[in-house]
Amino acid sequence: MALQFLLEAVVGFFSVLFLLRFFMQAGRVSFANQLGGFVMQLTDWAVKPLRRMIPGVGGYDWSSLVVAYLLQLLLLVLLVGMAGGLAAMPPGVWLFLLGKALLELVRQVVYLFTFALIIAAVLSWVNPYSPLAGPVNQLTRPILAPIQRILPPISGIDLAPLLAIVLLQVVLKFL
């Protein structure tokens, strides 16, 4: 049980880092800050070698996304193996694991953006000029911009982050 928790924590942490790298590059968020440096240093070991096989296409760093997916798949295989079911698995279960890994990756994306929206909201109240505020705001802009077009600030209070978090939680319920 403790080993399972440890595996899930480590794989979840690194999956989020690879997803963060993917979305930061997709959103053209600068890596010339503490957050960007942290993400780059902890993910370069896997992304750089994989880029030789999986090039970036359309401005997206597909190798980061592939590593995040493979980590989720590896976690599922390890958990099934620890339960003793790896050797006796019928072939159809492998397809289930591939789909489950994709579902877990989407769940990680929802958690990542929910957490980023909460950080952006807190920083906007506490320290809007923090070095972390710029990258987090750039990261959350693609989610907030469409909502802000529909729901403008009311008396100077922006409810778009709250609505975005609620919508993300609805997505999470369906997953």
3D architecture notes:
Helix content is 76%, strand content 0%. It has 175 residues and is an all-alpha fold. It is globular and about 60 Å long. The protein has helices at residues 2-26, 34-51, 62-82, 91-126, 133-150, 160-174. It starts with a helix and ends with a helix. The protein is built from six helices and no strands. α2 packs across α3 (62-82) and α3 packs across α4 (91-126).
Residue share in helix: over 70%
Shape: globular
CA gyration radius, whole angstroms = 18 Å
| N-to-C CA distance | 24 Å
- Total DSSP helices: 6
In round numbers, the mean pLDDT is 91
Beta-strand percentage?
under 5%
String of helices and strands = HHHHHH
Structural topology:
Elements: H1 2-26, H2 34-51, H3 62-82, H4 91-126, H5 133-150, H6 160-174
Compact description:
This protein has helices spanning 2-26, 34-51, 62-82, 91-126, 133-150, 160-174. It is an all-alpha fold and 175 residues long.
Q: Notable features of this structure?
A:
175 residues; 76% helix; mainly alpha
